[in-house]
Amino acid sequence: MQKRDAKSELIHVGMELFSTQGYNATGIGAVLKKAGIPKGSFYHHFRSKEEFGLAVIEEFATRFLARLDVFLSDEQTSPLNRLKIFFEKGLERLADHECTVGCLIGDLGQELAARDGQLRNRLDAILLSWRERFAACIREAQQSGELEKSLDPHRTAGFILSGWEGAVLSAKVRKSPQPVREFLDILFATVLRKP
User: Fold this and answer.
1) Quick one: which of 46, 91, 143, 148 could link to 52 by a disulfide (CB 3.0–4.6 Å)?
2) What is the CATH number of the domain that holds 121?
3) What pTM was computed for the model?
4) 76-100: per-residue pLDDT in tens?
């Protein structure tokens, strides 16, 4: 019989509950109950809810960054198409979940933006790392002639990330993928259009 990894199970359940009900509304008791793990095991791995929250954020960010890198570094696909495919897959995932689950980092960023401390700072750093990856792909698209050289890759990446997160939030509120579809259609017809 395989021994269960309590820490990984807690983090997995934390990702699920934070995604559906948020950080503040998720108590440690709910995590323990869903994971079927005793309270002592939680405090063996995490000193506080904030430390647990950081572990959940790190796990999600690691998984998302790996997915982002797979899409944005695919040299068999042109840089502009890499971006398009990445966002289209994100739209598919949103629709598959009936617009109930968006981006955990974006959701937690909205919820925890007013807080000081490690959680907010880590969320900010993660969003900046995503922005840098988008900017690198935009630079590649400029070098290959797919995008105008006049675009500022860093500012454009920030615009895209902010627009995406806002569109996902609107999709969740409306329970419809339409806001994301409209965002992507306009993005690729205007800002990221070929010269």
Assistant:
1) 46
2) 1.10.357.10
3) 0.89
4) 999 999 999 999 999 999 999 998 8
